[in-house]
Each structure stands twice: as structure tokens, then as C-alpha cells.
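Suppose a colleague, Dr. K., hands you the sequence of a protein chain of 154 amino acids and asks what its three-dimensional shape might be. Before reaching for any lab equipment, you can write down a predicted structure in C-alpha cell form. Begin with the sequence itself:
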Amino acid sequence: MTSVYEKFSIGWLKISSHDSKITGIDYADTEGESDEWNEVLRDCARELQEYFSGERKVFNVEIDFEYKGTAFQQKVWRALYEIPYGMTISYKTLAEQCGGANYSRAVANANGKNPLSIIVPCHRVIASDGTLGGYTGGLDKKKHLLKLENVILV
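The predicted structure, expressed as C-alpha cells, is then:
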């Protein structure tokens, strides 16, 4: 696995790749030690910059859902990936899509372990009452991403 650090308007992100696919986008408090940049890492950083500047709504960089996680987590991450830019769904709706209404807690856990933040948009999942719920990167980052996508919050 190859990893690099890049600073964006949201802060430092660690971007990881393996076999020409992106396998991780994680929030970082500071810049860490980067490996050599490869083509997929450069493409991902460019697409993220375009997203943060409001020029991109869909990511084209190739990602690997199967590099990490259980089969259920991967199912949740694939469902997250389908949430359109500027839209939100509830944890309950996501749970119903991934196995049933009683899966809300399991879906929330899988959401929190999403290795591909931003590109697999777990920030678009909110509580049924319209409040934000949680976010691994912190609620300030979730608010930032939703505001960037012009989502009006309760």
C-alpha cells in the first residue's frame, strides 16, 4: 500500500492506494510521511481538490471496496456510494436498503468504519429527525461537506 498526505480546505487527508486503486481516504491532524506519488494518488488528489472547489460532483477515480471490511460493511459502503451529491438519507433508510430496519446500529458502525471518506459519502447519512448524527471526521467536517453540497440542515 502507498500513502500520501495532502492538505485541502477541510484539513489534512491521508490518501492510500493499492494495485492502482484508492483504498483509503482518512482525516489526519497533521501532515505525515508520504510515500512516492503514483498516478491514481495524483488523480484522486486532483478530483478531491475539484470537489472542494465546487467543480466536481462525481468521482471517477477507481476505488477498491473489497480491500477492507466485512461483506456487510462492503454492502453498506456500496450503498453509501450511490447517494447522490447534495442529497441525504437517514440511517434507518440505509439500514432498510442493507438488510432491514433493525440493522440501524450495524449500518451506523459500518458507516463509521468507511475507509473511503468523502468519495464514499458517509457524510450524507443523517438521523431520521434531520439532525446530523455522528461522523468519524467530526461534526464540523460533516457540516462543512454538507454545506459544500448545498444541503440545508434542520
